UniProtKB/TrEMBL annotation:
Gene3D superfamilies: NAD(P)-binding Rossmann-like Domain. PANTHER family: 3-OXOACYL-[ACYL-CARRIER-PROTEIN] REDUCTASE, SHORT-CHAIN DEHYDROGENASES/REDUCTASES FAMILY MEMBER. Keywords: Oxidoreductase. It comes from Parasphingorhabdus halotolerans. SUPFAM superfamilies: NAD(P)-binding Rossmann-fold domains. The lineage of its organism: Bacteria, Pseudomonadati, Pseudomonadota, Alphaproteobacteria, Sphingomonadales. InterPro entries: NAD(P)-bd_dom_sf (IPR036291), Sc_DH/Rdtase_CS (IPR020904), SDR_fam (IPR002347). The keyword Oxidoreductase applies. It comes from the Bacteria. This is SDR family oxidoreductase. One of its GO terms (molecular function) is oxidoreductase activity, acting on the CH-OH group of donors, NAD or NADP as acceptor. The keyword Isomerase does not apply.
Length: 256
């Protein structure tokens, strides 16, 4: 029996799928019945994840992907379509950080962050939408694009100004894309996670500063990576047919 959030019959594409949230989403979508395409630069990791998914009875494909390079994105979608057909559910998840006070962060690092976190999201979403529209999404209403934001987009602090601004930027980008494609059957929504221990933070939470940050959260804990599962499945599935242009905070109350 299919659940309301079933992805059976859908193909999902996760950009930034080699670790952390992206790897979690790939496994989650595969278990929900989707054909899953894992895009990342670290293809050794995505190949291992494909093998794991296939051992569990899923269908998966690893494709090399540099979200800052439009040609790489086009090639990734081409490979996905050759294997599984149209990509219906897209997750723009790839991201990098540039920690440090703004007066100290090197400008080349700032450019890398903006190219990945903003331009990369734009290119991944745009290419997916082009293909969905060409495949008849206007009539089928089956296009689903989920952008991974961050609660930092709504906070102020020290040490992540450019990262926070890039996440605020893609939030507004998502609403504009949702408006642009609202009659084309392509829904675009954003999820803002809180602080979840993944590779991007390194060993920060083991330091005194990291422990102090956790102590400052209302529930005195980091967010569980599994806490995003239900919302991710909802946005990727037919259940969210009437939801577009939304940005949802799922952060265990950290930003309250």
């Amino acid at each position: 029996m299919e659940t309301p959030f079933s992805l059976a019959g859908r193909t999902a594409f996760v950009a930034g799928a080699s670790s952390g949230l992206g790897a979690r989403f790939a496994e989650l979508f595969a278990k929900a019945g989707a054909n899953i395409v894992l895009g990342a630069r670290r293809t050794d990791r995505t190949a291992e994840l494909v093998a794991k998914i296939e051992r569990q009875g899923g269908k998966a494909l690893a494709v090399p992907l540099d979200v800052t390079d439009e040609a790489s994105i086009i090639a990734a979608y081409d490979a996905a379509e050759e294997r599984f057909g149209t990509v219906h559910s897209i997750v723009a998840n790839a991201g990098v950080a540039a920690t440090g006070r703004s007066t100290d962060v090197a400008i080349d690092r700032v450019q890398t962050l903006l190219d990945t976190n903003f331009k990369g999201v734009y290119l991944v979403a745009r290419e997916g939408a082009k293909r969905l529209i060409a495949s008849g999404s206007r009539e089928k209403e089956n296009g689903r694009i989920t952008i991974i934001g961050s609660i930092t987009s709504r906070l102020t602090g020290e040490g992540d100004s450019v990262y926070a601004a890039s996440k605020a930027g893609v939030t507004h980008l998502a609403r504009n894309l949702a408006r642009e494609w609202v009659r084309q059957g392509v829904n675009v929504n954003t999820i803002h996670p809180g602080y979840i221990p993944t590779e991007i933070q390194g060993d920060w939470y083991d330091t005194d500063g990291g422990k102090a940050q956790i102590a400052g959260f209302h529930r005195r804990r980091l967010q569980d990576i599994a806490s995003l599962d239900a919302m991710m499945l909802y946005f990727a599935s037919d259940a969210s047919r009437c939801v577009t242009g939304s940005d949802i905070i799922v952060d265990d109350g950290q930003s309250l």
